Amino acid sequence: MGPSPEFRAGDKAWAGAQILELPDLSSVHMTAHIDESDRGQLKTGQAATMRVDAVPDRAYQGTVADISVLARIDFSSGWPPAKNFDLTLSINDADVRLRPA
Questions:
Q1: Could you give the CA distance from residue 94 to residue 14 in angstroms, rounded to a whole number?
Q2: What single-letter DSSP state applies at residue 93?
Q3: What do you get for the CA distance between the two ends of the chain, in Å?
Q4: Positive or negative torsion for Cα 49, 51, 92, 40
Q5: What is the H or E stretch that residue 39 is in?
Q6: CB 85 within 8 A of CB 36
């Protein structure tokens, strides 16, 4: 059984139905992909500096929160396909420009 369809104006809600999701804005995380060759140089808890295209005048400080154990193969990048790992970074000094509007 898949996820429930999104609620629209006029739909009837029932007890226990998820009609919206409130994000936790107390912390900000960034997800990225790292190449297989860079995977061995990173570890959880390591300091990181991040730049965001939408905020070009600022560099954010944070830490590596999680690195995936298994690589994802990206067949869209040509041959041979790239092997990337998912990376989650926790931003320590986030400002309001990174939050949803």
A1: 37
A2: S
A3: 33
A4: negative
A5: helix 36-39
A6: yes
- The pTM for the full model equals 0.69
Q: Quickly count: other Cβ atoms within 10 Å of residue 87's Cβ.
A: 19
Instruction: Tell me the C-alpha distance between 19 and 68, whole Å.
Output: 31
Q: How many residues does the chain have?
A: 101
d(CA 92, CA 87): 16
Cis upstream peptide for 81 (omega within 30°): no
Predicted confidence (pLDDT) per residue in 5-51, tens digit: 778 888 888 888 888 878 777 788 899 999 888 898 999 999 999 99
Place of tokens 């297989």: 36
Strand partners, 72: 84
